[in-house]
Amino acid sequence: MEIDKIIHEPARLRIMMILSGVEQADFNFLLTTLGLTRGNLSRHVEKLESAGYLKVKKSFKGKVPNTGYELTQKGSRALTQYWEDVDAIRQLGQSL
Amino acid sequence: MSVKQNNQLQDQDAEKLKEIPKWTRRYAQNRTLTILVLMVMIMLYSMFVAALLGFLLALAAAGFRKGNIILGCVGIAVLVAALVAIVKFQIFILAKFGSKNKGLLDQIIDRWIYGNEVTTSIPKPKSSKKKICLEILSGVIFFICIFASWHLAIKGYIAYKYLQPVSALYIVPFVVCGWYFWKSPRMGPIYLLYPILYAGHAILIVAGVPIFFTTENFCIFSICLPMLGYGFLPFIIGHIYSRYALKKLKGITHLEGDTANGD
């Protein structure tokens, strides 16, 4: 059993978990909620995007540009699988 | 720290992390102050229009009744001007916030209230023509029920005391069904507090607590005041709950030190 390394990183796991609870969350929401720097968050988001786990939605709020993120179906499936794997490992650890 | 203790701590962390979607959803779903502000704005606007038109109509009627044709004509002219201005304003509002801009006003208020927190959204229910027609129809039936019970109370078929308890018979199921079938992304289960409080108010009246109006002119307030008061309360509680949910969410998700800066 191999845990998905892309999701396993604490910041990326939290980003995925936040997005799994809502339809869409924007960059600044993730920034304030996670307490990351802009550069760090961008890097994590890029990794998740290149893995196909989330998609970027660029729009305008009035005159201000807004970047929103949405979990893809692939991302949703990967997250479910991740937790199944983690739970399986935890159970294995308890039985030892 | 032993391996067992370490495992237990990691288990707790994992369980906490699993709560992130729940708190995010609760936060997004309970940012209800926007709806409250929108409702108050619509209410104030309606009251202003009703007061303005009522005053001008009364002025014109008083002028004609007293034989003061000039006052009557001025009253009518101002009334027509006010009506034209109101229609123009409505057209302006519809052009700015209607059709393809639907939801823009909501967004503007949202940004004004929750601007610093930016946005999250939860899925909106799909709208169809049939659904919209059903919404309008049920709204019309709802207001017919309110005015019918008010009329029956004035005619003496319903005692003023029982006007609110009778209204609870249709308002409570209407609100519960409305919440269930037309689930709005902004109305979480907290909104169910409204029918519960309204039903509680009715039970108190039946039990003999004098929380109703007894005169013909004011009896409609026996319905309106609890309807508005209890209607606003869930939105305020929802807003407070969203603060709590955000705090909880930040408590779980906030990363510090190396974890925050690591890859």
Summarize this, please?
The complex is a heterodimer of chains A (96) and B (263). Chain A is of the alpha+beta class.
Oligomer type: heterodimer
Low-pLDDT segments, ≥5 res of chain B: none
- Averaged pLDDT of chain A: 89
Please describe the biggest sheet of chain B, giving its number of strands, its sense, and whether it closes into a barrel: none
Number of domains of chain A: 1
Low-confidence stretches of chain A: none
Strand ordering within the main sheet of chain A: 1-3-2
| Overall strand count of chain A | 3
Strand content of chain B: under 5%
Listing every helix as H and every strand as E from the N terminus to the C terminus, the arrangement of chain A reads HHEHHEEH
The number of helical segments of chain A is 5
What would CATH call the architecture of chain A? Orthogonal Bundle
Largest sheet of chain A: 3 strands, antiparallel
Strand proportion of chain A, as a percent range, falls in 15-25%
Gyration radius of chain A, rounded:
15 Å
Q: Please identify the structural class of chain B as seen in this structure.
A: mainly alpha
Q: Output the number of helix runs of chain B.
A: 10
Give the domain tally of chain B. Answer: 2
What is the 3D form of chain A? elongated
Helicity level of chain B: over 70%
CATH homologous superfamily label of chain A: Winged helix-like DNA-binding domain superfamily/Winged helix DNA-binding domain
Give a description of the structure.
- The complex is a heterodimer of chains A (96) and B (263).
- Chain A is α+β, with helices and mostly antiparallel strands and 96 residues long.
- Chain A has one domain: Orthogonal Bundle (Arc Repressor Mutant, subunit A).
- Chain A has 5 helices and 3 strands.
- A 3-stranded antiparallel beta sheet of chain A has the order 1-3-2.
- Chain A is elongated and about 60 Å long.
- The mean pLDDT of chain A is 89.
- Chain B is an all-alpha fold and 263 residues long.
- Chain B folds into 2 domains: 94 residues, no CATH class; 126 residues.
- Chain B is 74% helix and 1% strand.
- Chain B contains 10 helices and 1 strand.
- In chain B, α3 packs across α5.
